[in-house]
Task: structure prediction
Amino acid sequence: MLCSRIRTALSARLDGEALPAGVTARRLDDHLAGCRDCRRWDARARALTVVLGDATAPPQVAADADPAAVEALLDRLRPGRRAG
Ligand SMILES: [Zn+2]
Result:
């Protein structure tokens, strides 16, 4: 399956929406197991979901997110703070 389709489905899953036709959670997990790029994409999407504070997201999304990625995003979003 194309990575672009996988990522569309991952985004829907993160948002609590129905998966696109023809995509199952099993296929998503199978693809993630074999595709490093999509795993990284998924980690970033989860981190963004946490940062944006989606009230509809279940708490386990935050627990699953890569703490380092979340910290980096928060750093960049913090007002008045500059890198370097
Ligand atoms: Zn992929």
